[in-house]
């Protein structure tokens, strides 16, 4: 019988808690839920008001993995949903606004992916993202080198960048922005990526051509498009081990000399949150947003 748990007055059926989702480490579904409950205080501000895309892996990363944007069947009526404009027609999507909704979504075994805008103003981007993806034999070490250059380049335009691991191979740079459409932010991000390639031609790449990627860091600027989403800070990833898209300090980026130095599992991230709080908290402060140059 599926146990019923009460979370802030909401009744949740949390199923298959002993099921091993990450065979490489024995990490169970119950541990997934415990992780999300532990980091809820820092995760929720990055989810709130952003339509959620689900990358689900109910049988673990080695099983079926599928992406869904529409409200899943059986969604409780107390979970907030909203109609979201899309080129192919409007869709109704989930908004994770509180702890009960987070635990309900986590019980579906999902990565959390969100756009760079909030539902109250889908026409204006409030975040800029640059996804640094290394092509082997390049690793996150090379991503760090590119990230440091990008940090300075963005700062020259009055934009403060923050870093997190992708939870896979690379890094994500995030910045709070204001006053621009997703199209304008995409245009600006591409411009910066082109400059990175021009400055570091042996290391950085802005073009999406896969044959050009070995040994280089692809600076993916395209995730700023209104229809695109990026792994949310603190989300678990569907990888062989329970790795997390974890915020990191610029000191850690600068000091990185080996890939495992910027690889964090669920337990490590929970400990980092207890010690440091949210290293990306400034992204959620309205006064921290920069304005793109004309």
UniProtKB/TrEMBL annotation:
One of its GO terms (molecular function) is ligase activity. It holds the Pfam family LigD_Prim-Pol. It comes from the Bacteria. Keywords: Ligase. Residues 28-279 form the DNA ligase D polymerase domain. NCBIfam families: ligD_pol. This is ATP-dependent DNA ligase. The lineage of its organism: Bacteria, Bacillati, Actinomycetota, Actinomycetes, Kitasatosporales.
């Amino acid at each position: 019988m599926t146990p019923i748990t009460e979370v802030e007055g909401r009744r949740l059926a949390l199923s298959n808690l002993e099921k091993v989702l990450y065979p490489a480490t024995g990490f169970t579904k119950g541990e997934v839920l415990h992780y999300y409950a532990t980091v809820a205080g820092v995760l929720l501000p990055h989810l709130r008001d952003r339509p959620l895309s689900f990358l689900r892996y109910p049988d673990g990363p080695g099983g079926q993995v599928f992406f869904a944007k529409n409200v899943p069947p059986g969604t409780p009526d107390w979970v907030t949903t909203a109609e979201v404009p899309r080129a192919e027609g409007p869709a109704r999507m989930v908004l994770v606004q509180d702890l009960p909704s987070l635990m309900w979504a986590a019980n579906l075994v999902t990565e959390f992916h969100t756009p760079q805008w909030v539902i109250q103003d889908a026409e204006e981007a409030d975040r800029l993202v640059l996804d640094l993806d290394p092509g082997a034999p390049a690793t996150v070490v090379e991503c760090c080198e590119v990230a440091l250059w990008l940090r300075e380049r963005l700062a020259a335009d009055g934009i403060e960048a923050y870093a997190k691991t992708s939870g896979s191979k690379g890094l994500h740079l995030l910045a709070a922005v204001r006053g621009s459409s997703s199209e304008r932010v995409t245009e600006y991000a591409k411009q910066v990526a082109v400059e990175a390639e021009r400055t570091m031609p042996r290391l950085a790449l802005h073009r999406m051509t896969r044959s050009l990627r070995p040994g280089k860091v692809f600076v993916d600027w395209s995730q700023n498009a209104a229809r695109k989403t990026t792994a949310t800070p603190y989300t678990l990833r569907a990888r062989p081990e329970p790795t997390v898209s974890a915020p990191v300090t610029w000191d850690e980026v600068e000091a990185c000399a080996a890939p495992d130095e910027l690889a964090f599992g669920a337990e490590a991230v929970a400990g980092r949150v207890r010690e440091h709080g949210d290293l990306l908290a400034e992204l959620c402060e309205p006064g921290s947003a920069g304005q793109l140059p004309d």
